[in-house]
Amino acid sequence: MKKVQAIIVALTLVTVGCGQRTENGQPPATPYPNSASNPLSSSPNILLIVADDLGYTDLGSYGSEISTPNLDRIAQEGTKFSQFHVAAACSPTRAMLLTGVDNHIVGLGAFNPETIGKNQRGIAGYEAHLNFRAASMAEIFIENGYHTYITGKWHLGYEANSTPVVHGFQRSFVQLDGGAGHFNELPAIPLRRQASFREDGVPVNLPDGFYSSDFYVHQMINYINEDRSTGKPFLAYLAFTAPHWPLQAKAETIRKYQDKYLDGFERLAQQRQKKLVELDILENSVTPVPYNQDIFRRWSTLSHQEKAYEAKRMAIYATMIDDLDSATGVLIQYLKDIGEFDNTLIVFLSDNGAEGHQAQETESLIELATVLGIPCCDNSHENIGNADSFIGLGPEWAQASVGPHRIYKGYPTQGGIIAPAFIRPPTQEGPEWYKGFTSVKDILPTMLEFAGIDNHNNTFKGRSVFPIEGKSIMPLLQGKADTVHANNINMGWHLFTKHAVRAGDWKLLRLPKPYGDNEWELYHLPSDPAETKNLAKQEPERLKTLIQHWEKYQQQSNVIIPELPWYVRY
Hints:
Structural class: alpha/beta
């Protein structure tokens, strides 16, 4: 029974499709083949870089041993954020990133069509694809004279009426699915024949020699280069698919890390937390409470063969991040070569915490695929990392990746919703680190203010839209403010049946069974970033106030806790 549940857990995670369209906002009458005729020649270019499932401590600038010199240099030239909040999974984060509006409003209240609850069907905000109830980032920028490009992961709709083309991207080469192979069209679910890709809205096959991080950068360079003669600024959304599973990477780079992780899970977590303390990001090392459904193995209990396998697993993951950084360096050098680097605002973030679900779920899918006659995969020690392998990171290594935070992707605990992020403006006047609350909804208003584009409020191109909820970080980056949200911190989360709300320094969390005991938990995050001390019983009045915050958020964003089938467990 557990194996059947594990199979369907993974199915619900990455299956991508398109639910019935019931949004209030209407799509634009035509796609956006060209940018508007009023170029903002003095405006900066915008480069938005998103990593897929990159954990909090996975970059050198956040305490990692992985070589990421290009991203670290950009981070050093800008402001890094230690409390940057995202959704607990990829598509809700990307929906908020592109609109500045809560994901339950703009179509990603449900993760994908297969996880739309019976009580959510037909309700605006639960279409499981990006709707038109808010103006998207690309729509706004192309209307204001920018070229708009995206390469990499989309995961906001599968059908033609929900691809980047209809949401304002002039050029696009995207992976529609939640995950895929990094050398070929191997699907994120081995039970499917191949992953889906589109260029400018048209289904395409991948070229020979494809390697995800390298290809998406080179494709982005081609798009920028083709339009250089226009003199218009560009919005370039580089949505890497690394280091999302399946873990696959270049063999030559894997060798660089082959002996790096032989000291094991616990040692890596200790080393990274020690580095966070040295960087003054963390006051003291902590031991987060593990997820009660996980079986955490201690390194000392593994056999020699198991240790070798696990060390290589982490080496492949590290290689994917190293390769992502190297590819980013190619794009940065290109911008310098054409004289645009110093006029480019660079934003970097990960879409959620590290992925740590049990490896048995992947193994079960592979077994079922084999039974059904679908070839996948060779996960022998010698072959993992290659194009025909299929493994994930697992909870032990993920715990090191999320650092001092609790659990990982898929949960509204801190480990699932805190991500590395930094912004490098053309002229840096802000702090090296900002330790206050920020969120993914703050990115769009920040970009608009840097570009000199007015906030659209409730109307965009004649259609009624929801206003941007985030707040611009630009005053902080220009040294004109020392805070972003001051004491007005409010944000809520919901994924499947797990939910949380943040109000000021306090966080309310509920993990229904089997994830928790279905009781409200209360945490004071400044003193307890690992969520180890539940203060619900000690602070009854505070608990009552936070429950009221949750109820207000639930009403404002139309959060509907789904009635899900028994097998949806992610």
